Amino acid sequence: MKVVVCITGASGVCYAKRLLEVLKERDIKTSLIISSSAKRIIEHELDRDIQYLIDLSYEYYENNDFFSPLASGSHKFHSVVVVPCSMKTLSAVANGYSNNLICRVCDVAIKERRKIILMPREMPLSPIHLENMLKLSKLGVVIMPPIPAFYGKPKTVEDIVDFVVGRVLDNLGIPNDLFRRWGDI
Ligand SMILES: Cc1cc2nc3c(=O)[nH]c(=O)nc-3n(C[C@H](O)[C@H](O)[C@H](O)COP(=O)(O)O)c2cc1C
């Protein structure tokens, strides 16, 4: 099982960091791609540098590397998670505009009918954003905005991040106990 983790230039790169950590803990291979905008947001929002994220991954590709195996449908990967997903990348994916490796790997996942999770982050959402999400959802793309729930009574920011990442693992079919489930509370 290989999961492609794409980090784009939206707030909430902490979710990507945590996802890479828990996938590594479970010995699940990850291919990592980071957009240029995301690199700057990582420097601003995270207490860890980009190299820390690269070291968590199994393999890393630059976002302009169209010679990466990930750019071809003939290369096997299980799923793609775009976390967080900017409105720009959302729009590009919704319209098949593959001008970088992140958009290309999403395009590949859609055409090959593979699992793809987008975690769009913006507020408020415009009709353009909503239409792009609806279009992709109808194609089978999982639209999973990083919206926490509070019924588990989180005490720390880490608890909130783990709820969101745990729900992503649920959707990928990876067992986890990162958060308190309704019914167990
Ligand atoms: C600090 C910071 C936070 C940003 N947060 C968001 C965001 O939450 N959502 C979003 O759609 N764009 C956000 N942007 C703007 C995107 O980074 C910008 O549109 C960029 O072109 C996205 O490119 P990418 O999708 O290739 O990473 C943010 C930019 C900065 C500098």
UniProtKB/TrEMBL annotation:
Instruction: Spell out the molecular function terms from Gene Ontology.
Output: carboxy-lyase activity; flavin prenyltransferase activity
Reaction equations catalysed:
dimethylallyl phosphate + FMNH2 = prenylated FMNH2 + phosphate
Q: Where is the Flavoprotein domain?
A: 1-172
Which InterPro entries does the UniProt entry name for this protein?
Flavin_trans-like (IPR036551), Flavoprotein (IPR003382), UbiX-like (IPR004507)
Q: What is its EC number?
A: 2.5.1.129
Specify whether Flavoprotein is a keyword of the entry: yes
Mind telling me which Pfam families this protein's record contains? Flavoprotein
Binding locations of dimethylallyl phosphate? Y151, R167
Superkingdom per UniProt: Archaea
Alphabetical list of Gene3D superfamilies matching this protein: Flavin prenyltransferase-like (3.40.50.1950)
What EC class does the entry list? transferase
Locate the residues binding FMN.
G9, A10, S11, S35, S86, M87, K88, T89, R121
The answer to whether the entry has keyword Manganese is no
- Which keywords appear in this protein's UniProt record, sorted alphabetically? Flavoprotein, FMN, Prenyltransferase, Transferase
- What does the similarity note say? Belongs to the UbiX/PAD1 family.
Q: Which PANTHER family match?
A: FLAVIN PRENYLTRANSFERASE (PTHR43374), FLAVIN PRENYLTRANSFERASE PAD1, MITOCHONDRIAL (PTHR43374:SF1)
Its annotated function is as follows: Flavin prenyltransferase that catalyzes the synthesis of the prenylated FMN cofactor (prenyl-FMN) for 4-hydroxy-3-polyprenylbenzoic acid decarboxylase UbiD. The prenyltransferase is metal-independent and links a dimethylallyl moiety from dimethylallyl monophosphate (DMAP) to the flavin N5 and C6 atoms of FMN.
Name-wise, this protein is Flavin prenyltransferase UbiX
Question: Source species, please?
Answer: Methanothermococcus okinawensis
